[in-house]
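TA notes, week 10

Several of you asked for a full example with nothing omitted. So below is the full record: structure tokens for the whole chain, then the designed sequence directly under it. When grading your own attempts, check the secondary structure regions first.
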């Protein structure tokens, strides 16, 4: 692996590059692995986006093909096969910037987010690991406990139970069998409400 150290006097750590990856990304191909699509309709088992109990206190482990580190700023920029692990949360990308002081992650290129009950694939993303919130653009997601799936121009995880999506298509049917689906300009999802067959549409 390639590791470069930068002093505080050097240039500011870079921001995420614009992604140009094909839509048939490796991250999207992982979305349905092990998901039980035996029933197409409202579900009754509740679930959250991740485990609300760990509070983001677990250590952050990062592996990548290459890294530039700004020690005084406590910022790292990682490239090539980046994998981030914090407790039960995983973030993969081709490019990633991690600010330890703010616990902020910015990622680009074949982005993959997974935590208990949620999988999201996209091309650009930003996350606050400790606060358990973030944004992915565009977003293709699976709720693995419900289960349910959808795609949207952008998706925001607001907390372990709530999410907001713009220009979304949503269904609880297996891929390729859309017996019903919901399309909306905006959609707020409460995982407890989805389990009971209810979502908030605007």
């Amino acid at each position: 692996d390639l590791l470069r150290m930068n002093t505080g006097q050097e240039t500011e750590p870079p921001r995420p590059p614009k992604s140009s990856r094909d839509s048939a990304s490796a991250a999207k191909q992982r979305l349905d692995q092990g998901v039980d699509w035996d029933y197409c309709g409202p579900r009754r088992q509740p679930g959250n986006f991740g485990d609300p109990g760990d509070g983001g206190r677990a250590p952050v482990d990062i592996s990548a093909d290459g890294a530039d580190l700004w020690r005084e700023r406590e910022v790292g920029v990682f490239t090539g096969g980046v994998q981030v692990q914090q407790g039960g949360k995983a973030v993969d990308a081709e490019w990633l910037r991690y600010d330890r002081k703010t616990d902020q992650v910015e990622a680009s290129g074949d982005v993959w987010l997974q935590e208990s009950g949620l999988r999201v694939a996209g091309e650009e993303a930003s996350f606050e690991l400790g606060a358990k919130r973030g944004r992915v653009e565009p977003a293709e997601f699976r709720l693995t406990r419900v289960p349910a799936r959808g795609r949207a121009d952008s998706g925001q995880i607001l907390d372990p139970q709530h999410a907001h999506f713009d220009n979304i298509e949503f269904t609880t049917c297996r891929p390729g069998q859309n017996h019903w689906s919901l399309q909306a300009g905006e959609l707020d999802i409460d995982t407890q409400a989805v389990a009971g067959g209810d979502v908030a549409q605007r």
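The CA atoms of residues 26 and 110 lie 7 Å apart. Use that as a sanity check on your answer.
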